[in-house]
């Protein structure tokens, strides 16, 4: 079952069809929250940056049918931002002194060959 379905069928003049497509194009160009005036009502959509599209043309029976389909995922209902630690929350590493008698540089022993 779909969460929401809106369908509208009506006859339009060429100018009205162009106006409707222009309103859709403007909403797509702007992205984010968009409101489309669809005659008797307004449809509000959240439009992301990336969409899937399908263009279909069918010719037959004395008619031409042009379908433009745009599809995108709905936004997650509640996105939890990743947790980042503040400097105060990070555990501090303790510096431990090196054991007595050892140094960082290794001592080299030299022997003379006779």
TrEMBL record:
> Per the UniProt record, which residue ranges are transmembrane?
none
Q: Name one Pfam family in it.
A: Amphi-Trp
Against InterPro entries, the record matches this protein to:
Amphi-Trp_dom (IPR027598)
Residues of the Amphi-Trp domain:
4-77
Q: Where is the composition biased (Low complexity)?
A: 74-83
Region Disordered: start-end pairs: 70-114
Comp. bias (Basic residues): 104-114
Q: Which domain of life is it from?
A: Bacteria
In its UniProt entry, what is this protein called? Amphi-Trp domain-containing protein
């Amino acid at each position: 079952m779909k969460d929401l379905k809106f369908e509208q069928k009506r006859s339009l003049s060429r100018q009205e069809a162009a106006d409707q497509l222009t309103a859709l194009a403007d909403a797509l160009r702007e992205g984010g929250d968009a409101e489309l005036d669809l005659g008797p009502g307004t449809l509000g959509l959240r439009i992301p940056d990336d969409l899937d599209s399908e263009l279909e043309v069918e010719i037959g029976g004395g008619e031409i049918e042009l379908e433009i389909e745009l599809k995108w995922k709905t936004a997650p209902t509640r996105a939890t931002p990743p947790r980042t630690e503040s400097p105060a929350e990070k555990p501090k590493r303790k510096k431990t002194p090196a054991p007595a008698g050892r140094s960082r540089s290794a001592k080299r022993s030299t022997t003379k060959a006779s």
